[in-house]
Structures are given as structure tokens and as C-alpha cells.
Amino acid sequence: MIQGHGDDIFRYRELLKMNFSSTCYQHADHTALRQHLAEHVDVLANYPEPYPQDLERLIARQHGISPEAVMVTNGATEAIYLIAQLLQDSCSIIPGPTYMEYADACRLYKHVITYENMGDVADMPKDRVYWICNPNNPSGNVLMKGFVEYVVRRSPRYTFVVDQSYGAFTREHLLAAHHVQEQTNLFILHSLSRQYGVPGLRIGYILAHPTNIQLLRAQRHPWAIPALSIEAARFLLQEGKPAVDDVDAYLAETERMRSALRKIKGLRVFETKTNYMLCELSDVKALVLKNHLIKEHGMLIRDCSNFYGLSDYFFRVTAQLPEENDALVAAISDFLSTK
């Protein structure tokens, strides 16, 4: 785990008023989930299923695929590390800047790592692993579904790990689950964190060909998923409400926020296809801005200086409530006007 990874809210709890640093929407209504868990807290008195097969069958039904093509994991992060372990000693290509956990997992399992923009891909062995974050974190870019399908189908010697964990808040078409039953060289990752706003539950899952799922199961330890998380995930998938009811309205608010940020002198804001956006400061380092915002306004942003390929001047923000977004825009504008 890298320092500065993800939502470091734990460092600032006493100061925090508004959190723009996570890719999750912070205002999901968890009333029904809390009530359900309170009524089922007795699950803590017993061991959970060694492997959450009931939950996997539920996910499989919702995707219209075989349960043998689904594996529930302790967040999408465990999925990344399990796949890197399965493919250890491989040559991995990680187009950057992107989610840093891919490189961390690959280093742990002795992959040879290269970044697609380094120009050395042609010299790599023919058997390769491509790690694709789609939508990409931190940029918010989305690769066309047809392009990804074409590349996976035309490159059977390559293995593709397509992480769709951030797909809950995009209107772009992503890979469908049925592809994993047809393509043995494809892994698709999902997370419940963004869809339901519950990153603390640590529930993710892998969709892959049954042969690959069987290999992954052989290397994972039992009881990896806590009983309360299994119960919560089951409830959310059957009866839960998504973190945002109207995704179109939320994405429109995201674009309104981006347009407002773009008007600030000394700030570049990149286009996005989801609910978060990448920003670049011209004269002030992102860490300086981050420290100012948390100290003076109780606002937390994501310093992106530890993403491969990004400088100390990049940060990421995720759209929240309109009034919070406006407050952030005003706070950044006021700060940069003094620099």
C-alpha cells in the first residue's frame, strides 16, 4: 500500500467538513442498510462462509452469467493482488497515469512493469498483461466499449485486466459480463463502493472465465470476507438504493462544477466522463493547496503527485452536493487569487 493512497480522511477527521478526495459520493442514504444490519448483527457471533458462494450466485444472476465465473473479494484491491499473484513473474503493461495499486501488486509478485507511454512495449515478450482502468482513475477518461472488445478478442496471447470499479457514474458503455465466459484472457473487476457509497464494507468481485476463477480460488485464504460485509452486500444487491438516484443529474452537476473550476486563473481542469476530475495547478503545488483547504475550510482534495506520470501540481476532486461544490470553487479561487 502506497503512502497517500486513496481517501486519507483518517488523518483529518477532526478538521473535515467536506470530502472531495474519495471517488465516492459522500451523501448516500444508508438508513435502510443501517436498520438491516442492526437487525442482523447476530451474524457476528459465527464464522462467515469460508467462501461467499451465496453472494456470488446472487451476483451471477444479476449479470446473467454462471456462478463459476464470479469471485467475491475483499474490495477490488484484493482482486488486483490475487490476479497479480496468479500471473506472477509476468510482463505487465500499465498505461499511466492510472490507479497505483496495479503497479504495487505487480511489484510484490515480481512482474516486469512498463508504462505504455515509455516506448519500450515492442521489446517486451509476446505474453503480456495489460491493466486497464475504465473509467480511468484519476483522469475520468473512458475507453470505448467496442475498442476494448476488439483488442481483447484480437489479442488472445495477451491477458487483460479491465477494472470497471469506477463505472457506476458514467453513461459510457462498458464491457458486459458475458465476455468473460467467451474470453479466457479477460478479467473484469467491479466494486460496490461507488455504486452504493460503502467503501468501508470492502466488497468487490472478479468476473472471469470459470477456469481462471478456479485458479484464483486455489490461492486465496478462507474467511476473507467478514460476515457483516456479506450480509450488507446481499441486502444492497437485493433491496438497496444506489448512492445517487439520478445519475444524469449528478453528472450534469459534475460538469457544472468543472466549468466553474475552469474559470479560475492558474488552474487547468481536464475533461471527464464520470463524477471526478483531474486538475493541474500552474504555480502552486497540490499539497500546498490541500493543506490550505483542510486547515482553513475543512475541505479535503486528493493530491495526485504520487500517480506515475503526474507532477506535484496535480489533484483530483469528486463532485458532491451543489452547495459544497460551490464552496470548494470559491475556496480555491480565493486562494489562487493571492498567489
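That was protein one. Protein two is written in the same sequence-then-structure order:
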Amino acid sequence: MKTYYFKSFMLVALLMAATIVVAQSVARQFVITLPHATDTAKLHVFLPERVKATGRAVLDCPGGGYSHLSMQNEGTDWAEFFCQRGDVLAVLQYRMPKGDHDVPLSDAKDAMRILRDSAAQWGINPYDIGVMGFSAGGHLASTLSTLAEWDVRPNFSILFYPVITMEKKGQHEGSCRNLLGKQRDNEELIKTFSTHRQVRRHLTPQAIILLANDDTGVPPVANGIAYYTAMRNADNPCALYVYPKGGHGFGIKKSFPYHQQMMTDLSTWLDQLKALKQEAVRVACIGNSITDGSGIDMAETRGYPAQLQRLLGDGYHVKNFGVGARTLLNKGDHPYMQELAWRDALAFNPNVVIIKLGTNDSKTDNWKYKEDFASDYQMMIDSLKALPAKPRIFLACPIKAFQDRWTITDKVITEEVAPIIYKVAADNQLEVIDFHNTITETAMMVSDGIHPNDKGAALMAKKAEEAIRSTPPAPTKKTKKSKKRYDRRKI
């Protein structure tokens, strides 16, 4: 995540804002007009007392079918709850789309930028900013969570009886009509804004979904439960609470039969939501399905990056940017550098990078472009070297292929792919993590012989931890001889 700076327009708005105590736990309230919108788009900010501040902030998107906003029950009435906890609440008074689907999302992005730009002034941890949405506001919140770029994507989502699908079966007709307008039959837009179709493994933030079983306004199965299903299928952390009755739009109303239980459920979930420290060392794990955790159930907690996080502790922030089937080769069948995960990895501005690519490159149809492998690797390394953090970069030798499958063969990995990796590392004075000799038993692999199981992932995590904790070698003067320091006997 990039360093955020307090923009001048923000400072002026803050100085001009009146301080209003609206509830016992709200120290200050002020309103900011969004910079790229008309004066109808505003952010209502509620700051807790400094002594209570947790560093967490929540961007609240009230519902209203994209035709109006429920600003109190689903907005400002939540200020006491969050400020009592020590959290900042920012209620977004977003513009109605009137058929222009970009309008609400544009306002939500601006609001997220304001929160991150103002982090230092408002006592916010920029890695602990979530979004909360109700009904159509839940759709906006889930859109921000799935379609937004890294710098404005929230760290977690709270979705109350959310509109999720734009598909005819199960859609909330009014929200769909107001958001998409004359394009509501456009199949591409329907897919894009049906946010359960846009959930991305490791990249979509964890969520809690709260709804009532008897909601006839926004059918739960096609909406909130569909989003939960997509999150669970992607192994992304997600909680689902379905209350027996209460209908649609209960918000914070005490008349909701399960109001107290709902507030307790939400509080408990928030209490368990641990944010990483701002000063943590950022570690980006870049790779294919082996990094992604394919074959490991709940890879978000059992894959090698997750296990590496536990080994390193809270002084580090390890992020999984693995994507299945991806190649380093830009002429490969699925080039990694064309992925959202690659853009996210760069935006993460890591201090440490582990690149584990090459397994899929060894496939027959990909390795015919092997002459480009070193230059494409250099392109990736150059992009990482250009980052402000100037990361320590590790190149990983691919793990052993215990079976020939999908035209992946260990012979190609050992005799052709790995030597190039070692040479590229030597040319750039980078360190190599030898994953190839880390896993030596089939008991550490899933049945396909290509992917490690959770035990194999544990070995990879340990190897990576040792590398990260080791003292970096002193730079040496490049010579022609130094360019050939790889040794095939190592692999």
C-alpha cells in the first residue's frame, strides 16, 4: 500500500468543519464534500475520543435501492456503536446513479481515498479501513470490495442484507434498473456488477454478511448467500448470519427481533478482526497455483504464505498474490503480469518479495518460448526494483514435479527452467530460495504430484522464513564470472 498524504482540500475542509457532539462517544462530527462530485455527495465523519481510538475506520454506505438513502437507520445512527468501540465512522452520502453505474462507485472510491489520505490526522490505520453497506449500499460496498483497485479497496466488508446479483433471477429490480438504466440487459455489465461473480481468491477482503431469512425484498439465496458461497469457494474468510425473521431494512432498529444478538455477533466478529501493524514489514508472495494454495482447503489459512505469516509474526504483513495456472512468460497461456494480482503486488509496495514461477512455463506449449524466459523475468524484477520500498527480492526454484502431468515435467524444471532462474538471480545479485529440494517426499504433496499439501506448504514456509530472517549478502561488483554462479548440482 502506498504512503498516503493529507491533501490540501482535506485540511481546509477539516478546519472549516464545526465540531458537534452528537452522542456520548462521538468526540467530533464534520462533513466533507467529495472533491470530484457535486455538492450532493458528502462524507459525514464521526471521530471517537482519542483515548478510545483503535485505529479502525468504517465507510458506511446506506441503502435505498439506488433511488434514495436511508441516512439515519443505516447511516448516522451507527455513530454511537462504532465510536463507543473507538472506531471512526464515515457515512457516505453518495449520488444516485440514474442509470450511470460509475457514479456511486466513483463516490465510494473518493471516500476511501479521503480516509486513507487522512489516516495520520484522524488516528486511522490505513490497513484497517472497512466498508459497510445495507441493501443497495451493500451492493456498492461489495462492488468497492471486488472491482476497485488496491489503493481504494477496503480491508474488510460488512454487508447487511446486500443486493448482490444483477441477474434476472433473484435481482432487486429497482436497484438494477436505477444502477444500469437502459443497459440493464447488457450481459457484460450484468456479470460485472453481479459481485459474487467478481470475488477473487486472496484479493477480495474478508466479509461478514447479516440478513433475515424472511427477506422478500432482496432474496437471500441469490444475493447475500451467493456472495458467501463465492467467498467460501475462493477460500476467503467470510462469516454469514441468517436470522429467522426480520424482513428487509432492519438496520440498527431496536424493533428488529434479533437486534441485540445481531449487535453482539457484529461486535464479536469485529473483535476477532485483527489488523496488521502499519510499520510491519510487507512480504509479497508472487506465484502460480503452488503459491495460491491449490489443493489445500482454506488455503488462506493453510497455504505457504499464511503459514509464513504465522512463523514471522505480527511484525510482518505477508500477502498471497498467487494465481493458479499462471506463467512468467508473457507469451505463455496465462501470463502472470497481466493479472490483477500483479497490479496489486506492485501497489502493495512490498519490502520483501518471493517470486515462485516457472512450473507452468515448463509445459510444452509454453516452453517453446523459453528464449524469452530470462528477459521476461528481468522485466518483472525491474518493475519490483523501481518500487519506492526497494524490496529485497528472492527468486524461488520451483518445487519438484513428482509426476508428469499437464505436460509439466521435472526434467524440464531441473535442467532448463531452474538454471535460468539461478543465472537471472546472479545477474541481479538476488538470493534464491531452493524450494525444489525442500519437498522430497510424496507424502508432502496432493495426489496430482504437482502441488504441495498443507504439510508441504509448511516446509516451504519454514524455508522462506529462514531466508527472510537471514542477513542479506553484501553486494559485489558485477563481473562476467559472477554471472555464472548458478550450479545445476543444487537442483
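Residues 400 and 416 are 13 Å apart (CA to CA). Keep this in mind for the problem set.
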